[in-house]
Amino acid sequence: MPPGTIWRIGVEAMDPSRNRKTFLSERVSVLVGDITEQDVDAIVNAANSTLLGGGGVDGAIHSRGGREIRQACEEIRRTRFPKGLPAGEAVITAAGRLPARYVIHTVGPICRPGREPDGRMLALCYRNSLALAAERELRSIAFPAISTGAFGYPPEQAAPVVSETIQSFLSQKTSLERVLLVFYEPSDMTLFLKNQRFTAP
Ligand code: APR
């Protein structure tokens, strides 16, 4: 099967050459990879409210993107969010040394053990990040699995929220043509695919 051939399986299509599945007439791609390596208009950072870096996605973006990102975040803290970026909100900065043009920083909901995860807040992270990209007429955006790492959001419960939020956003007129969902581990991608709720466009 030549690279780039798309298999259609129901609503999803599998491109075996690139281990990526697509949905919504190939506007959404689900793949395994490193968010910092995505060559798109904007990548989304799973930040915390300080905007001053951390581990996981946040650590990788700041360490590979360089000081320019940190300086832009410090400026945002100083001028707009002196008390920190509230959960669900999204802000945009330059991307420093990363292949992407911009970084959209959003703060996901923290999920405490035994507590119901806050799906509304998680949906806000994705919707506000998409809206910020569309406001800038961007055409492509890549998301990591926000809140499903250190913030403890159960990935199998995140998948329906994420897929429904993205599908609803893309059903309206927007500059966005490509949305990538980038998973660090193949097992995370498999779990997402099992629980996603994309429907045929
Ligand atoms: N590329 C893509 N995905 C990644 C990468 C990467 N380079 N690094 C980690 N991930 C995955 C994790 O495996 C997890 O599935 O991203 C998902 C989100 O994990 P976190 O980065 O821990 O983000 P989150 O759960 O939102 O927690 C945010 O952690 O790093 C700190 O400063 C950050 O306090 C904030 C909190």
Tell me what you see in this structure.
- This protein is an alpha/beta fold and 201 residues long.
- The protein has one domain (16-195): 3-Layer(aba) Sandwich (Leucine Aminopeptidase, subunit E, domain 1).
- The chain has helices at 56-65, 67-79, 119-135, 155-170, 186-195; strands at 7-9, 12-15, 20-23, 28-32, 42-47, 90-94, 102-107, 140-143, 178-183.
- It has a nine-stranded mixed sheet, sandwiched between helices.
- The model has no long low-confidence stretch (mean pLDDT 93).
- It binds adenosine-5-diphosphoribose.
- Adenosine-5-diphosphoribose binds at residues 34-36, 46-48, 54-60, 108, 144-151, 182, 184, 188.
- Residues 34-36, 46-48, 54-60, 108, 144-151, 182, 184, 188 line the site of adenosine-5-diphosphoribose.
Task: Give the SSE map.
Blueprint: E1 7-9, E2 12-15, E3 20-23, E4 28-32, E5 42-47, H1 56-65, H2 67-79, E6 90-94, E7 102-107, H3 119-135, E8 140-143, H4 155-170, E9 178-183, H5 186-195
Parallel strand pairs: 4-9, 5-7, 5-8, 8-9
Antiparallel strand pairs: 1-2, 2-3, 3-4, 6-7
Helix pairs in contact: 3-4, 4-5
Bound molecules: adenosine-5-diphosphoribose (APR).
